[in-house]
Amino acid sequence: MTKIGLQLILCATILFLCPTNSFSQQAKKQSSLDSLQAKMGRLVNYQNDFIDFAKSQHHDSLEYEIVTSFNVVSNEVFEYVSSTRTLLYIYENLSCDVDRTLVKTMIKKQLNGYLQMLDNDIKTVNIGLSDVKTPAIATSGTQLKEDLREIKMLLEQLMAE
Predict the structure, then answer these.
(1) Which helix (DSSP H) or strand (DSSP E) does residue 36 occupy?
(2) pLDDT in tens, 107-157
(3) Which of 31, 41, 115, 149 has the greatest number of beta carbons closer than 10 A?
(4) Among 3.40.720, 1.10.3480, 3.40.50, 1.20.1260, what is the CATH number of 29-160?
(5) Is the dihedral of CA 82, 84, 87, 92 positive or negative?
(6) Is pTM beyond 0.85 here?
(7) Which sequence spans correspond to the domains of the chain?
């Protein structure tokens, strides 16, 4: 094979691999954004459910306080997830490597703070679940706790990138 033939094969290989690699990275990034968006939708549903549950409770009851705390948690975590999604979107659309490095550092610091707050939010839900008597509140609270754990895992994965 000639030198030109080898160069053509090398160029074709690079052209073939580069778009695939870029597409793969882009698909992974889009997947993270989509996952965060889906979690935001679930958290809004929890907020609505907990508001409805609160309306059916006496305002001076323990279950009212618990369901209200679950609503606060779902609202706070929605803000963490929304902020994370926005930061990732901005990061993905930066073209300057220096800016990307600065923003990536800021995102990691922000995610670290969110992870610490998520630990407290999971504890809050766990404590509330131990005193809940209404099956619907217990079920929604348990589902919220599982979603919080999934969100925590997703943020931990983003921190590792």
Answers:
(1) helix 3-55
(2) 999 999 999 999 999 999 999 999 999 999 999 999 999 999 999 999 999
(3) 115
(4) 1.20.1260
(5) negative
(6) no
(7) 29-160
